[in-house]
C-alpha cells in the first residue's frame, strides 16, 4: 500500500469517532462525504489537477481529531486581524464559540451555528449545504463533509444591505490535528453582504486545516468574500470555495495567502444568470520551501456575464507557486467579457512558479483575454531608487510592496487593508531573507 493510500485510510478512520458523537441531522451528510472520500482517496501527482502538488509531506502525518480547548479573548486578539465596527463569529478548531463571538452589529444578518440547529431548522437555514462543491471531484471537500461537526451559516434576507462586514475567525490550536472549517453564505435577492473568513493559528504547531466555503448569490445580490490564510508556517492548508451567481448578481473574492507549509486553494464560480459578474483577486507570498497552489475556474454558463481575475505571486527562497486558471465559456454564452491575469515576482534564483492560464471558448461573440508573467525586480527601477539615496534593501522593499499593494488596495474593507499592513510586511520580509 502506498503512503497516500495509508494516509487516506487513516483519515477515513477519523469518520467513525465523529459519527459516534451524535448529531443525527448531519449523519446522512457525513456518510455521503465519507463514501466520496473512500472512493477518491488523497490525490496523487499523476492526476492532471494535482500534477504540481505532491502530498507526500502531508501523507507522512497521522492527524488526529481536535481536542476541545478553551481560548481566551486576549489570545484571540493577538492573532486575529482587527476589523472594527463589525460582527464577530469565532470557531475554535471548527467548533463555534459563543463566548468569543459578538453578533449584535449585524442585526439584519442571520448568523447561525450548524451544530445548534434542529433537523427542521437545518432543512430551512442550511438548505443547499454541500451542493456547490462536488465531493465526487474534490477529495478534500469530501473529507471535510465526512468530519463535519459545525459550520457558520450566514444568510442575508431579501433586501438586506449590511453596512459593515461579518468577521468569521477560524482558530487552530493543536499540533497534528485535522480541522474542518465550514462556511455557507446565502445572499437572497437584492441583498448585500461582506464576509471575512480569517484562518489563524495559536502557536507554531503543524496540522491540517481543510476548509470548505459555499456561496449562493441571488438575483441582484452582492457578496464579497475575503479569505485570509495566516496559519502557522508549518501547517497544511486546503481550501475549496464554490459560488453560484444568479441574474445581475455580483460576487467578489479575495484570497490572501501568507501562511502554510503546503497550501492548495480551489475556487470555482458559476455565472448562472444573465448579467452576473465575478471579480476574483488573489495574492500569495512564499519563502523557504513553501508550496502554494491556486486553481480557479470561472464558468460562463449563460450570455451577458462578466469576470475579472487577478492573481499575484511573490516567491523567495526555494518556494514554489502554482497558478492554474480556467475560464469556460459555454455554447450560447454570447456577449461574455472575461479577463484573467497572473503576474508573478521571483525574489530569488531558486524560487519557481508554474502558471497556466486557460480559455475554453464555445461561443463566437465574446471579449476574452488572459495572460501571465514571471520576472524579477527590474534593475532600472532599482537603479532609479538607489540614485535617490535609497539603499538597496529599502529599494527592493518598496518595489515588492508596490507589486503586492494592487491586490491589497482592492479589498472592499478599509480597516482590513490597514490591519494587514504588518502581516504583508512580515511575509515579504520572510520571502526576501532567502534571496
3D architecture notes:
The protein has 435 residues and is an alpha/beta fold. The protein has one domain (3-432). It has 11 helices and 20 strands. It has helices spanning 3-13, 15-19, 27-40, 56-59, 73-79, 119-125, 139-146, 379-386, 392-409, 414-419, 421-432; strands at residues 87-92, 95-96, 110-113, 152-156, 166-172, 178-179, 182-187, 192-201, 208-217, 222-230, 236-245, 250-257, 262-271, 277-286, 291-300, 306-315, 320-329, 336-346, 352-361, 366-375. The strands form 2 sheets. It has a 10-stranded mixed sheet. Strands 3, 4, 6, 7, 9, 11, 13, 15, 17 and 19 form a 10-stranded mixed sheet that branches. Strand 1 (87-92) and strand 2 form a beta hairpin. Helix 3 (27-40) packs antiparallel against helix 7 (139-146), helix 8 packs across helix 9 (392-409) and helix 9 packs across helix 11 (421-432). The longest helix is centred in the C-terminal third of the chain and has 18 residues, at 392-409. It is globular, with a radius of gyration of 21 Å. It starts with a helix and ends with a helix. The model has no long low-confidence stretch (mean pLDDT 90).
Given helix and strand content, the structural type is alpha/beta
Low-confidence parts lasting 5 or more residues at pLDDT below 50?
none
Helix content: 10-25%
Largest sheet: 10 strands, mixed
Amino acid at each position: 500500500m502506498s503512503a497516500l493510500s495509508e494516509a487516506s485510510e487513516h483519515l477515513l478512520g477519523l469518520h467513525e469517532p465523529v459519527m459516534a458523537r451524535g448529531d443525527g441531522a448531519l449523519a446522512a451528510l457525513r456518510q455521503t462525504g465519507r463514501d466520496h472520500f473512500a472512493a477518491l482517496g488523497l490525490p496523487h501527482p499523476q492526476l492532471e489537477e494535482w500534477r504540481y502538488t505532491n502530498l507526500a509531506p502531508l501523507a507522512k502525518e497521522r492527524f488526529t481529531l481536535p481536542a476541545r480547548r478553551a481560548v481566551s479573548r486576549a489570545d484571540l486578539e493577538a492573532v486575529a486581524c482587527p476589523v472594527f465596527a463589525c460582527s464577530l463569529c469565532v470557531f475554535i478548531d471548527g467548533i463555534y464559540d459563543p463566548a468569543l463571538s459578538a453578533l449584535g452589529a449585524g442585526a439584519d444578518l442571520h448568523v447561525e451555528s450548524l451544530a445548534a440547529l434542529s433537523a427542521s431548522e437545518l432543512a430551512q437555514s442550511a438548505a443547499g449545504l454541500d451542493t456547490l462543491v462536488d465531493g465526487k471531484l474534490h477529495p478534500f471537500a469530501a473529507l471535510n463533509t465526512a468530519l463535519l461537526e459545525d459550520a457558520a451559516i450566514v444568510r442575508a434576507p431579501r433586501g438586506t444591505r449590511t453596512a459593515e462586514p461579518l468577521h468569521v475567525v477560524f482558530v487552530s490550536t493543536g499540533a497534528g490535528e485535522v480541522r474542518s472549517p465550514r462556511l455557507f453564505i446565502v445572499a437572497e435577492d437584492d441583498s448585500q453582504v461582506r464576509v471575512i473568513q480569517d484562518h489563524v493559528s495559536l502557536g507554531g504547531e503543524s496540522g491540517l486545516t481543510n476548509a470548505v466555503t459555499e456561496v449562493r448569490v441571488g438575483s441582484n445580490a452582492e457578496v464579497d468574500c475575503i479569505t485570509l490564510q495566516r496559519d502557522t508556517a508549518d501547517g497544511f492548508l486546503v481550501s475549496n470555495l464554490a459560488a453560484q451567481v444568479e441574474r445581475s448578481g455580483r460576487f467578489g473574492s479575495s484570497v490572501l495567502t501568507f501562511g502554510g507549509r503546503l497550501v492548495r486553494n480551489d475556487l470555482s464560480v458559476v455565472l448562472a444568470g444573465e448579467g452576473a459578474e465575478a471579480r476574483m483577486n488573489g495574492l500569495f507570498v512564499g519563502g523557504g520551501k513553501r508550496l502554494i497552489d491556486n486553481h480557479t475556474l470561472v464558468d460562463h454558463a449563460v450570455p451577458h456575464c462578466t469576470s475579472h481575475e487577478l492573481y499575484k505571486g511573490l516567491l523567495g527562497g526555494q518556494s514554489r507557486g502554482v497558478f492554474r486558471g480556467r475560464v469556460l465559456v459555454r455554447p450560447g454564452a454570447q456577449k461574455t467579457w472575461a479577463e484573467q491575469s497572473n503576474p508573478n515576482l521571483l525574489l530569488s534564483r531558486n524560487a519557481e512558479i508554474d502558471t497556466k492560464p486557460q480559455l475554453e471558448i464555445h461561443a463566437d461573440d465574446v471579449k476574452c483575454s488572459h495572460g501571465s508573467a514571471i520576472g524579477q525586480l527590474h534593475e532600472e527601477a532599482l537603479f532609479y531608487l538607489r540614485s535617490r539615496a535609497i539603499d538597496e534593501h529599502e529599494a527592493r522593499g518598496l518595489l515588492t510592496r508596490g507589486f503586492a499593494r494592487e491586490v491589497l488596495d482592492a479589498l472592499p474593507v478599509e480597516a482590513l487593508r490597514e490591519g494587514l499592513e504588518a502581516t504583508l510586511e512580515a511575509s515579504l520580509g520572510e520571502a526576501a531573507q532567502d534571496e
